[in-house]
């Protein structure tokens, strides 16, 4: 099994070299239907390559976003000692403990905005990279509530009353709306809000399928 955030041609080459029989790609490689499978586009070449070599592809995007212990819980886990366990923003009607996004409320005083930015950068393994922010609070302000969504979370976070939004990407106008509603925003970059979940899920697969080799892609960028 090869795990990846995005199934690109480089990742497919890696899967072939590893003789992988299954690629778990967090993002589905296809968002629009194909009318033909040729060599004219990279997505068609990926489909053709998988079919030719008998490689299956599974994309658990929404399930991993929603489930307990999934991507959103991983993204918010750096808050765990200072905030509650987090609740879904949109509840799953069949599994009320699961759902889209997460909201967190502080235990005691919470963390300052500067502390959250620093801890988040360490958590997503970008300690030396600039993280875009749109702030309405000073860096010394202790944040009492956080709403987050891995990936592109503008539509889900809209209307939430949290002091801080954390997501991968958001449009300029969505940022302005959030700031005018009193919420500061931290943007991690879309893939940075998701990719480091894969190594944390790898042991679960290894335990569930003993004898199966599970690899996290090194070609996924």
Could you characterize what this model shows?
The protein has two domains: 2-58 and 195-216, NIF3 (NGG1p interacting factor 3)-like (Udp-n-acetylmuramoylalanyl-d-glutamate--2,6- Diaminopimelate Ligase, Chain: A, domain 1, 3-Layer(aba) Sandwich); 64-188, Udp-n-acetylmuramoylalanyl-d-glutamate--2,6- Diaminopimelate Ligase, Chain: A, domain 1 (3-Layer(aba) Sandwich). The longest helix is centred in the first third of the chain and has 12 residues, at 42-53. The chain is elongated. 33% of the residues are buried. The model has no long low-confidence stretch (mean pLDDT 95). The chain is built from eight helices and 13 strands. α6 links the parallel β10 and β11 (164-169). The strands form four sheets. A five-stranded mixed β-sheet has the order 6-10-11-12-8. It is of the alpha/beta class and 221 residues long.
Write a brief caption for the model.
Keywords: Metal-binding. About 30% of the residues lie in helices and about 20% in strands.
Q: Which fold name is given in CATH as the topology of the largest domain?
A: Udp-n-acetylmuramoylalanyl-d-glutamate--2,6- Diaminopimelate Ligase, Chain: A, domain 1
Please report the first level of CATH classification, the CATH class of the largest domain: Alpha Beta
What's the story with the biggest beta sheet?
A: 5 strands, mixed
How far do the termini sit from each other? 18 Å
Order of helices and strands: EHEHEHHEEEEHEEEHEHEHE
Q: Name the overall outline.
A: elongated
The strands making up the biggest β-sheet line up spatially as 6-10-11-12-8
